[in-house]
Specification:
single chain, 299 residues, five-stranded antiparallel beta sheet
Length: 299
Protein backbone atom coordinates (compact mmCIF):
# COMPACT_ATOMS: atom_id res chain seq x y z
CA UNK A 1 0.00 0.00 0.00
CA UNK A 2 1.40 3.40 -0.99
CA UNK A 3 1.20 6.71 0.87
CA UNK A 4 -2.13 7.46 -0.82
CA UNK A 5 -3.66 4.31 0.65
CA UNK A 6 -3.73 2.46 -2.68
CA UNK A 7 -2.50 -1.08 -3.21
CA UNK A 8 0.20 -1.54 -5.83
CA UNK A 9 1.72 -4.70 -7.29
CA UNK A 10 5.33 -5.19 -8.47
CA UNK A 11 6.89 -8.30 -10.00
CA UNK A 12 10.22 -8.86 -8.18
CA UNK A 13 11.18 -11.83 -10.29
CA UNK A 14 12.84 -14.91 -8.91
CA UNK A 15 11.74 -18.55 -8.86
CA UNK A 16 10.07 -19.46 -5.56
CA UNK A 17 9.40 -23.01 -4.41
CA UNK A 18 8.02 -21.99 -0.98
CA UNK A 19 6.48 -18.99 0.74
CA UNK A 20 8.90 -16.05 1.28
CA UNK A 21 9.88 -14.51 4.64
CA UNK A 22 10.38 -10.73 4.79
CA UNK A 23 12.13 -8.74 7.54
CA UNK A 24 13.07 -5.11 8.10
CA UNK A 25 16.77 -5.02 9.02
CA UNK A 26 17.70 -1.46 9.91
CA UNK A 27 16.36 0.56 6.96
CA UNK A 28 16.49 -2.28 4.42
CA UNK A 29 13.74 -4.76 3.59
CA UNK A 30 15.13 -8.26 3.05
CA UNK A 31 13.11 -11.10 1.51
CA UNK A 32 14.27 -14.71 1.87
CA UNK A 33 12.91 -17.64 -0.08
CA UNK A 34 13.67 -21.13 -1.29
CA UNK A 35 14.45 -20.96 -4.98
CA UNK A 36 15.94 -22.98 -7.79
CA UNK A 37 17.87 -26.02 -6.64
CA UNK A 38 16.17 -25.78 -3.22
CA UNK A 39 18.77 -23.18 -2.22
CA UNK A 40 18.26 -20.14 0.00
CA UNK A 41 17.87 -16.86 -1.90
CA UNK A 42 17.65 -13.24 -0.77
CA UNK A 43 16.49 -10.00 -2.35
CA UNK A 44 17.21 -6.65 -0.64
CA UNK A 45 15.49 -3.32 -1.16
CA UNK A 46 17.50 -0.29 -2.22
CA UNK A 47 16.57 3.36 -2.82
CA UNK A 48 15.79 2.45 -6.43
CA UNK A 49 13.91 -0.75 -5.63
CA UNK A 50 14.85 -4.37 -5.04
CA UNK A 51 18.26 -5.56 -6.16
CA UNK A 52 19.01 -8.85 -7.91
CA UNK A 53 18.58 -12.14 -6.09
CA UNK A 54 21.53 -13.54 -4.14
CA UNK A 55 21.93 -17.31 -3.92
CA UNK A 56 23.43 -18.96 -0.81
CA UNK A 57 24.70 -22.24 -2.18
CA UNK A 58 26.98 -22.73 0.83
CA UNK A 59 23.96 -23.53 3.02
CA UNK A 60 22.93 -26.54 0.95
CA UNK A 61 19.30 -27.53 0.27
CA UNK A 62 16.89 -25.80 2.64
CA UNK A 63 13.29 -26.16 3.73
CA UNK A 64 10.95 -23.17 4.05
CA UNK A 65 13.04 -20.28 5.49
CA UNK A 66 11.81 -18.10 8.35
CA UNK A 67 13.77 -14.95 9.29
CA UNK A 68 13.87 -12.42 12.12
CA UNK A 69 15.85 -9.18 12.25
CA UNK A 70 17.05 -6.70 14.86
CA UNK A 71 17.38 -2.89 14.66
CA UNK A 72 21.18 -3.10 14.27
CA UNK A 73 20.78 -5.09 11.03
CA UNK A 74 21.53 -8.57 12.40
CA UNK A 75 19.39 -11.21 10.66
CA UNK A 76 18.78 -14.80 11.80
CA UNK A 77 17.34 -17.29 9.29
CA UNK A 78 15.98 -20.71 10.27
CA UNK A 79 14.76 -23.71 8.32
CA UNK A 80 13.95 -27.37 8.66
CA UNK A 81 16.60 -29.47 6.97
CA UNK A 82 15.54 -30.34 3.44
CA UNK A 83 14.40 -33.96 3.45
CA UNK A 84 15.22 -34.14 7.18
CA UNK A 85 13.96 -33.10 10.60
CA UNK A 86 16.74 -30.96 12.15
CA UNK A 87 16.57 -27.22 12.82
CA UNK A 88 19.21 -25.21 10.93
CA UNK A 89 20.32 -21.61 11.40
CA UNK A 90 22.38 -18.98 9.58
CA UNK A 91 23.14 -15.43 10.71
CA UNK A 92 24.03 -12.21 8.94
CA UNK A 93 26.04 -9.54 10.76
CA UNK A 94 26.52 -6.16 9.00
CA UNK A 95 30.20 -6.18 10.06
CA UNK A 96 31.28 -9.79 9.52
CA UNK A 97 28.75 -11.00 6.94
CA UNK A 98 27.12 -14.43 6.86
CA UNK A 99 27.94 -17.33 9.20
CA UNK A 100 26.55 -20.86 9.16
CA UNK A 101 24.83 -23.11 8.61
CA UNK A 102 24.52 -24.24 12.24
CA UNK A 103 22.68 -27.41 13.27
CA UNK A 104 20.48 -26.61 16.29
CA UNK A 105 19.23 -30.22 16.54
CA UNK A 106 15.60 -30.94 17.31
CA UNK A 107 13.08 -33.24 15.61
CA UNK A 108 10.75 -31.01 13.59
CA UNK A 109 7.36 -32.08 12.24
CA UNK A 110 6.62 -28.50 11.08
CA UNK A 111 8.45 -25.47 9.79
CA UNK A 112 10.11 -23.41 12.56
CA UNK A 113 8.66 -20.13 13.81
CA UNK A 114 11.19 -17.65 15.29
CA UNK A 115 10.58 -14.47 17.28
CA UNK A 116 12.97 -11.88 18.69
CA UNK A 117 12.26 -9.94 21.91
CA UNK A 118 13.09 -6.24 22.51
CA UNK A 119 16.13 -7.34 24.57
CA UNK A 120 17.53 -9.28 21.59
CA UNK A 121 16.67 -12.80 22.78
CA UNK A 122 15.59 -15.20 20.03
CA UNK A 123 13.25 -18.15 20.53
CA UNK A 124 12.29 -20.66 17.84
CA UNK A 125 9.17 -22.85 18.14
CA UNK A 126 8.02 -25.94 16.26
CA UNK A 127 5.80 -29.02 16.35
CA UNK A 128 7.77 -32.06 17.47
CA UNK A 129 8.04 -35.35 15.60
CA UNK A 130 6.09 -38.21 17.15
CA UNK A 131 4.72 -36.42 20.21
CA UNK A 132 3.36 -33.42 18.21
CA UNK A 133 4.12 -31.23 21.25
CA UNK A 134 5.34 -27.62 21.34
CA UNK A 135 9.17 -27.42 21.31
CA UNK A 136 11.63 -24.54 21.34
CA UNK A 137 15.28 -23.45 21.45
CA UNK A 138 16.42 -20.15 23.01
CA UNK A 139 19.40 -17.82 22.54
CA UNK A 140 19.97 -15.03 25.03
CA UNK A 141 21.03 -11.88 23.18
CA UNK A 142 23.31 -11.70 20.15
CA UNK A 143 26.32 -13.32 21.81
CA UNK A 144 24.55 -16.05 23.79
CA UNK A 145 24.66 -19.76 23.03
CA UNK A 146 21.69 -21.78 21.88
CA UNK A 147 19.89 -23.95 24.40
CA UNK A 148 19.14 -27.59 23.81
CA UNK A 149 15.71 -28.32 22.31
CA UNK A 150 13.07 -28.14 25.04
CA UNK A 151 9.68 -29.86 25.12
CA UNK A 152 7.19 -27.40 26.64
CA UNK A 153 4.70 -30.21 27.30
CA UNK A 154 1.82 -28.63 25.36
CA UNK A 155 -0.19 -29.93 22.45
CA UNK A 156 -0.83 -31.89 20.36
CA UNK A 157 -0.37 -29.32 17.58
CA UNK A 158 -2.15 -29.56 14.24
CA UNK A 159 0.54 -27.59 12.36
CA UNK A 160 3.31 -25.06 12.89
CA UNK A 161 2.87 -22.77 15.93
CA UNK A 162 2.72 -18.99 15.57
CA UNK A 163 4.28 -16.59 18.07
CA UNK A 164 4.35 -12.89 18.95
CA UNK A 165 6.99 -11.11 21.06
CA UNK A 166 5.56 -8.18 23.04
CA UNK A 167 7.29 -5.01 24.23
CA UNK A 168 7.30 -6.36 27.81
CA UNK A 169 9.42 -9.35 26.78
CA UNK A 170 6.41 -11.68 26.95
CA UNK A 171 6.03 -14.19 24.13
CA UNK A 172 2.58 -15.50 23.19
CA UNK A 173 2.48 -18.77 21.25
CA UNK A 174 -0.64 -19.88 19.36
CA UNK A 175 -1.62 -23.14 17.67
CA UNK A 176 -4.58 -25.24 16.57
CA UNK A 177 -5.16 -28.47 18.46
CA UNK A 178 -4.77 -31.70 16.51
CA UNK A 179 -7.38 -33.56 18.57
CA UNK A 180 -10.92 -32.74 19.66
CA UNK A 181 -11.96 -30.16 20.59
CA UNK A 182 -10.16 -28.43 17.67
CA UNK A 183 -9.72 -25.17 19.55
CA UNK A 184 -7.11 -22.49 19.00
CA UNK A 185 -4.80 -22.40 22.00
CA UNK A 186 -2.43 -19.88 23.57
CA UNK A 187 0.55 -20.31 25.89
CA UNK A 188 2.11 -17.26 27.58
CA UNK A 189 5.88 -17.20 28.23
CA UNK A 190 7.03 -14.40 30.52
CA UNK A 191 10.68 -13.66 31.42
CA UNK A 192 11.74 -15.49 34.57
CA UNK A 193 8.48 -17.45 34.88
CA UNK A 194 7.39 -20.93 33.74
CA UNK A 195 5.07 -21.11 30.71
CA UNK A 196 1.37 -20.83 31.52
CA UNK A 197 -0.99 -23.71 30.87
CA UNK A 198 -2.64 -23.50 27.42
CA UNK A 199 -5.85 -21.46 27.23
CA UNK A 200 -8.43 -20.92 24.50
CA UNK A 201 -8.53 -17.18 23.67
CA UNK A 202 -12.04 -15.93 22.98
CA UNK A 203 -13.55 -19.42 22.60
CA UNK A 204 -11.98 -19.62 19.14
CA UNK A 205 -12.47 -22.66 16.88
CA UNK A 206 -10.54 -22.24 13.66
CA UNK A 207 -9.93 -24.03 10.40
CA UNK A 208 -6.35 -24.27 9.16
CA UNK A 209 -3.52 -22.38 10.86
CA UNK A 210 -4.09 -19.12 12.80
CA UNK A 211 -1.85 -16.06 12.50
CA UNK A 212 -1.00 -13.64 15.32
CA UNK A 213 0.28 -10.07 15.15
CA UNK A 214 0.48 -6.83 17.14
CA UNK A 215 -1.11 -3.98 15.19
CA UNK A 216 -3.72 -1.22 15.45
CA UNK A 217 -3.00 -0.80 19.16
CA UNK A 218 -3.70 -4.41 20.17
CA UNK A 219 -2.69 -8.06 19.82
CA UNK A 220 -4.75 -9.94 17.22
CA UNK A 221 -5.38 -13.55 16.24
CA UNK A 222 -6.92 -14.03 12.79
CA UNK A 223 -8.05 -17.37 11.38
CA UNK A 224 -10.25 -19.10 8.82
CA UNK A 225 -13.57 -20.07 10.32
CA UNK A 226 -16.32 -22.44 9.31
CA UNK A 227 -17.53 -22.07 5.69
CA UNK A 228 -14.41 -20.08 4.75
CA UNK A 229 -15.06 -16.82 6.56
CA UNK A 230 -12.49 -14.62 8.32
CA UNK A 231 -12.69 -14.57 12.13
CA UNK A 232 -10.70 -12.67 14.74
CA UNK A 233 -10.11 -12.27 18.46
CA UNK A 234 -8.01 -9.54 20.06
CA UNK A 235 -6.93 -8.24 23.42
CA UNK A 236 -9.38 -5.72 24.82
CA UNK A 237 -8.53 -2.61 26.81
CA UNK A 238 -9.10 -4.61 30.01
CA UNK A 239 -6.34 -7.09 29.10
CA UNK A 240 -8.79 -9.92 28.37
CA UNK A 241 -9.39 -11.59 25.00
CA UNK A 242 -12.60 -10.63 23.21
CA UNK A 243 -15.02 -13.27 21.97
CA UNK A 244 -14.37 -14.79 18.56
CA UNK A 245 -16.32 -12.88 15.88
CA UNK A 246 -16.69 -12.82 12.11
CA UNK A 247 -15.21 -10.00 10.06
CA UNK A 248 -18.29 -8.89 8.19
CA UNK A 249 -18.27 -9.06 4.43
CA UNK A 250 -15.25 -11.39 4.23
CA UNK A 251 -15.83 -14.91 2.91
CA UNK A 252 -14.35 -17.35 0.44
CA UNK A 253 -10.97 -17.91 2.11
CA UNK A 254 -9.11 -20.72 0.34
CA UNK A 255 -6.07 -20.41 2.62
CA UNK A 256 -5.18 -19.49 6.15
CA UNK A 257 -5.01 -15.68 6.53
CA UNK A 258 -1.72 -13.83 6.98
CA UNK A 259 -1.40 -10.63 9.02
CA UNK A 260 1.39 -8.18 8.16
CA UNK A 261 3.64 -7.15 11.05
CA UNK A 262 4.71 -3.57 11.65
CA UNK A 263 4.67 -0.85 14.32
CA UNK A 264 2.07 -1.51 17.02
CA UNK A 265 0.25 1.69 16.02
CA UNK A 266 0.08 0.75 12.31
CA UNK A 267 -3.16 -0.57 10.78
CA UNK A 268 -3.89 -4.29 10.87
CA UNK A 269 -3.53 -5.67 7.32
CA UNK A 270 -4.78 -9.21 6.66
CA UNK A 271 -4.23 -11.15 3.42
CA UNK A 272 -5.58 -14.44 2.06
CA UNK A 273 -6.00 -16.50 -1.10
CA UNK A 274 -9.60 -16.48 -2.25
CA UNK A 275 -11.59 -19.34 -3.72
CA UNK A 276 -11.71 -17.26 -6.92
CA UNK A 277 -7.92 -17.59 -7.35
CA UNK A 278 -7.16 -13.98 -6.36
CA UNK A 279 -5.16 -12.45 -3.51
CA UNK A 280 -7.37 -10.44 -1.15
CA UNK A 281 -6.69 -7.95 1.65
CA UNK A 282 -8.64 -6.35 4.48
CA UNK A 283 -7.54 -3.54 6.81
CA UNK A 284 -8.53 -2.49 10.33
CA UNK A 285 -7.75 0.92 11.84
CA UNK A 286 -8.62 2.21 15.29
CA UNK A 287 -10.35 5.23 13.79
CA UNK A 288 -12.35 3.59 11.01
CA UNK A 289 -12.73 -0.07 11.93
CA UNK A 290 -12.72 -2.69 9.18
CA UNK A 291 -12.50 -1.54 5.56
CA UNK A 292 -14.07 -3.31 2.58
CA UNK A 293 -12.13 -6.32 1.20
CA UNK A 294 -9.78 -5.42 -1.65
CA UNK A 295 -8.95 -7.79 -4.52
CA UNK A 296 -5.23 -7.32 -5.22
CA UNK A 297 -4.58 -9.57 -8.20
CA UNK A 298 -4.60 -13.08 -9.54
CA UNK A 299 -2.32 -15.62 -7.88
Amino acid sequence: MNAAGQWTRTDLGGYLTAAPSAVLAGSALDVFYRGAGDRLWERTSTQSGFGPGQRFGQFGPVGVPEAVAQPDGVIDVFWRGYGGIRLWHAQYDPVSGWAGPQNLQGHLASDPYPVVTPSGDVQVFWKGVGDRQLWRVVRGGLTGTWSRPEDLGMGPLDASPQAVALASGEIDVFWRRLTQPRTLELAVLRPGAPPTAPMNPGNAFGRLQPDAVVAAGSEWLVFRGHLGGLRQVHLGANGAWTSSVWVRGVAGLASAPFAAAGPASAPLDVFWAGTDGYLWAEQFTQAGGWSRPARLGIL
